[in-house]
Input
Amino acid sequence: MIADQPEENQHLSKVLGPMHIWALGVGIVLVGEFMGWNFTVAKGGSLGAIIACWVIGILYISLVMINTEIGSVIPEAGGQYAMAKYLLGPLAAFNVGLMLVFEYVMLEAADALVVGAILQSLNPAIQSLPYVILTLLFLTYLNYRGVYATLTLNFVLTAIAFVTIFVLLFSTHFNIPAQSILKLSELTNGLPYGWIGVIAALQFGIWFFLGIEGTALAAEECRSTARSLPMGTLIGMVTLLVGATITWFVCSGLVNASSLGSSVYPLYEAALATKMPVVIIVMFSGTILACMASANGCINDASRAWFSMSRDTLIPKAFSAVHPKYRTPYRAILFLLPISMAFGFTGLLDQVITFSILSALLVYLFMGYMMFKFRTMYPQGTIRRGYVAPWHPLPAILLLVLTLSTLAGMYFGYWVNLFAGLLFYLLASLWFTLHRYKFVDEKAFLKAGINRWPRPRGY
Output
């Protein structure tokens, strides 16, 4: 049985460089500039949206610094799950792994919803379901065949989609006031709900950056983790900050705040407002490509988290099988596809986004705590790091404070979702503790780290 492969055959191919890490991180996130972020306008108004964008930008800069330091010394698939495995133990690792899987599975479902909505915008008679299914099947097959081709394609898709944002920007003649079609002063609505609205907007401000932390999930497949992970992730963060600011600027100047706050595809709607056929076609293509790149990256990240949990015996061992030819976690890839499609065809975009965001925020809380524990267990000089986060403990404190503030903002509009999500993870924890834990091989669980790392200080 392939599921009973020898341990040395359960490792993935080391073929990725900084370009692929950039493509994975930005590819997953860029779709958030084509949809989802604009719900910040409905919650906090136009000014609340851009404030939320930059406040959440600080959250993610802190997260990326922490994620990159710890991830650069753990060259294993699983990202934050692998970090929790070594720093927090089986129960926390199980929860973090499950949260990562649902973060990306739900994001993939959101991509499917947007593809369906934008196709139907061309003609209400269009049946979007076949196109969505074919797209997800194609991307799943690509992931099945190999990570190098998958993320090389993601680089191309993401780069083209990112350029389309600049095409829209320059089409508005923003630099020639007399000719500009941007009407920020007429279409924006300031802070209609005050600073409470800004806090409420933080939840969807996350959509500008959600998923960039997934670069760590490809650590095991990097040719040089210490080089590729920091370079690809940090350049990706700069890319997203620039793209997010331009997106808010253009959409707020072309679409009335009341319409922008509820749009399924805000950048495409902004393109429609220009009434320029070429720009409309370009943004239509950019939106589709961004959704494809995001779904492609989500399949990659969710499957790596599921594969890692299985390899460490936290879930059934069958999902740890690696394809003998393509060196991909093919069973994990195939298993998660129908789950994502099922959520995608609920049609509830904001609900799907909310569960993805909640799962991510819970991971960020773990990351803030893990940074303190990592620096305590392995002070500088005791273990080789590919990157050292500056100003510790400030990034960890900012991450925890801003994450808790965002969870508070989520309570204002989605308190039922918040408590339902927390209940789900509580029940999953009980299942793991009362049933699954007896199947965990604790010696194999920490074997790689024990062989590679020095003994932690104080342990």
The domain at 2-452 is CATH 1.20.1740.10 (Amino acid/polyamine transporter I). The chain has one domain: 2-452. Residues 51 and 366 are 25 Å apart (CA to CA).
